[in-house]
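Lab notes, practical 5.
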Amino acid sequence: MSQTRTQPIHVAITRRIKSGCEAEFQKTLAEFFKTSFAYTGVQGAAMLVPPPGSHSNEYGIIRTFASDEERKSFYASPAFLAWKEKVSSLTEGEPAYKELHGLEAFFRNQTAPNPPQWKMAVATYLGVVPVTIFTSQTVGQLLKGQNYFVANLVGNACVVALLAWAVMPLVTRILKRWLH
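Output from the prediction step:
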């Protein structure tokens, strides 16, 4: 995690929450999210909670930073260190940090290493092809005759949304054994 980059840095953090402390942890994290955006270079944050009915106590945090320097600065900041101390009584053990690169964000798995890039590329291709055909035949037809750039912006937004929230989760679930 020490190399300098010009692309955004995505960090996945996993924390184990003590039984009965889940609501307080979520509240404290949500409050910290609001104040953390005041830091230069913090571009995004999301909380991942266990599915309803799950017995898991693992919570995830995804953070995005403008650069490696901004990430380092944020994690060394007094506000982050104070928050980390504040939630230490709500958590078990130390958090696990993992930097995510490109396609890795779709293919992360808690119990197995990330698959090779060529497998991630094949899985992505298998998701992109049907989505682009579908959107060109549906949204593309609706936008026929519209401004070329507007039609492409809308069409590509539909492709990305379908991939992110529907197709890639399905593809990675179907190909899980092959990928890992």
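Observations recorded by the TA: The radius of gyration is 19 Å. Residues 117-179 form one domain.
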